[in-house]
Design goal:
It is a single chain. The chain is α/β, with parallel strands linked by helices and 391 residues long. The chain has a seven-stranded mixed β-sheet, sandwiched between helices. It has a four-stranded mixed β-sheet with strand order 1-2-3-15. Bound molecules: pyridoxal-5'-phosphate (PLP). Pyridoxal-5'-phosphate binds next to helix 5. The site of pyridoxal-5'-phosphate has 15 residues, from helix 5.
Length: 391
């Protein structure tokens, strides 16, 4: 049996996968087991923030593996405490909780919000946005405002209500005396790359302040540098009460993070929440490299390449009638088409460019943050030829 025959036989059928077995990567490129080379604009779904085989990241992981891979959170470790210090000093939130994935970082925020609600007026209700995506655990998938993710698993997590993204009136109409928190992705990812309007987030912040409601940001995909700021909220001039993030934070080593203001973080006491692997030395050693790179110049590259990518995508929009919209922020861009994008993406993959969709009609561009203009030119060339076939 070859590798993907084995996979089909022994791995649960929860992904529709391409018949490609990837074997190694270097910088912006990955290689399949036959040596075919692909320019990687998927970056493991916005995870490989420093590309593949990044020398500093690899060195830090090697070095840490020789010292300590894991010890549990019954003890302090230097990489975890150092990463927490950097995250706090470079933003406006005061305390970190480390876990292992995006869904867990959402669960942590929801639990903290529920705890706050219980102690402040016995409120339980959490409002989330239509077309959002928050992960696959029961509470996170209930919070996800897209029925096809959560309408076939029986009873879901209670006290979640949905409102419309970028529609302040819809939020106002959904808030009740039982509302304790509002959960928003500053840029909706899986839902089709929809950036929030800054005025919308500002209005929601003000409403939350007036009604003692917590504002929770899901920065799992749009955080950790992807918008050109370390935290997504810094691109909007709004400070939430918590952020949840994961994907790119440790360059590919599983790591999740929930941050909160000091006052809110105090509602968790020892024993209230935990994670065996959360923030382990291997993951946080990697996280330190990612944050150091971002704060030492890489954020400037994201801003510069983000503008360039957006310009190039707009040129393709002018050229191809199949493209109906181009939108996004930094290195998180989307191209909406008038047709399902799966065959377009399949065509670019065939021609050596990994892209992914976001919903049925949107192609998503989430390259590693090290991407260059030459990489973008090359990707746009392959995409241009693919779009040609679908006009
Ligand atoms: C990917 C994603 C999640 C879930 O993260 P996992 O690590 O897969 O659990 C949650 N929210 C957003 C916005 C995401 O993009």
């Amino acid at each position: 049996m070859n590798t993907f025959e084995k996979g089909e036989k022994y791995i649960m059928n929860t992904y529709s996968r391409y018949p490609i077995t990837l074997a190694k990567g270097d910088g912006m490129y990955v290689y399949d087991e036959n040596g075919k080379k692909y320019l990687d604009f998927a970056s493991g779904i916005a995870v490989n923030s420093l590309g593949h085989n990044h020398p500093k990241l690899v060195e830090a992981i090697k070095e840490q593996a020789q010292k300590l891979i894991h010890v549990s959170n019954l003890y302090w470790t230097q990489p975890q405490c150092e990463l927490a210090e950097k995250l706090v000093k470079n933003g406006s939130l005061d305390k970190c909780f480390f876990c292992n994935s995006g869904a867990e970082s959402i669960e942590a925020a929801l639990k903290l919000a529920r705890r706050y609600g219980q102690k402040n007026g016995n409120r339980q209700e959490i409002i989330t946005m239509n077309h959002s995506f928050h992960g696959r655990t029961f509470a996170a998938v209930t919070a996800t405002g897209q029925p096809h993710y959560n309408d076939s698993f029986g009873d879901m997590f209670p006290h979640i209500k949905y409102a419309d993204f970028n529609d302040f009136e819809s939020i106002k109409a959904t808030v009740t005396d039982n509302t304790v928190a509002i959960l928003i992705e500053p840029v909706q990812g899986e839902g089709g790359i929809h950036p929030a309007k800054p005025e919308f987030l500002k209005a929601v912040r003000q409403l939350c302040d007036e009604k003692d409601i917590l504002l929770l940001f899901d920065e799992v995909q749009c955080g950790v540098g992807r918008l050109g700021t370390l935290f997504a909220y810094q691109s909007f001039g709004v400070v939430p009460d918590t952020i949840s993030t994961a994907k790119g934070i440790a360059g590919g080593i599983p790591c999740g993070l929930m941050m909160a203001s000091e006052k809110l973080a105090d509602y968790f006491k020892p024993g209230d929440h935990a994670s065996t692997f959360g923030g382990n030395p291997l993951a946080t050693a990697a996280g330190n490299v990612v944050v150091d790179e971002l704060t030492n110049g890489l954020l400037d590259n994201v801003k510069e390449q983000g503008v360039y990518l957006s310009e190039k995508l707009n040129l393709l929009k002018q050229k191809h009638s199949v493209v109906s919209d181009v939108r996004g922020f930094g290195l998180m861009q989307g191209m909406e088409c008038t047709v399902p994008v799966a065959p377009i993406v399949a065509d670019t993959i065939e021609n050596g460019l990994l892209l992914i969709g976001a919903g049925k009609n949107v192609i998503r561009f989430v390259p590693s943050l090290i991407v260059s203009k030459a990489d973008i030119d090359k990707a746009m060339n392959i995409l241009d030829k693919a779009l040609e076939k679908f006009n």
